[in-house]
């Protein structure tokens, strides 16, 4: 499981001390959304190189605090970390990607009628964390994530579906493997 407080401190630590302090102050006073916006804008404006794992964690932080849609373009434009760096997590560029039908990745009845958008990959484990969305009446995807889906492409038998309040658990399992937190996993997902 990811400790969100540690993550905030680590990500803010990429910035110069005065900027890092401003980001952490936003969090301390309950202005997490403003803190995430400030963090991303300072990383971008100052061309601070960010590794792929930190970029993926930042994307999850933005997701959890409801600002992912706003910040997604900026997250992909932040300077990349060191050339040739090996990273356990990678943010997937989804601008041109077609969502997958929920049934195609497994996960049982929970994903019926939903579309699954691959989002963060773990190349070493060949696993993907995705967001499942409802299709709106006008044909677009719902802004809100219905579930988080952890799957291995081509292996629907091992798909796990997580409730939206288990985002950090899903990210931790993507990176480190099963955590034993079965309460957050839907019955439809395989253990």
Quick overview of this protein structure:
The chain has 191 residues and is an alpha+beta fold. It contains seven helices and six strands.
**Order of SSEs:** HHHHHEEHEEEEH
Low-confidence stretches: 180-191
Major sheet attributes: 6 strands, antiparallel
The chain-level mean pLDDT equals 85
Shape: globular
Task: Look at the helices and sheets and give the structural class.
Answer: alpha+beta
Q: In total, how many beta strands?
A: 6
Q: If helices are DSSP runs of H or I spanning 4 or more residues, what is the number of helices?
A: 7
Keywords:
about 190 residues; globular; alpha+beta; 7 helices
List the helices and strands and how they pair.
Elements: H1 4-12, H2 17-28, H3 32-45, H4 52-64, H5 68-77, E1 90-91, E2 100-101, H6 102-105, E3 114-122, E4 127-134, E5 147-152, E6 155-162, H7 167-176
Antiparallel strand pairs: 1-3, 2-3, 3-4, 4-5, 5-6
Helix pairs in contact: 1-2, 2-3, 3-5, 4-5
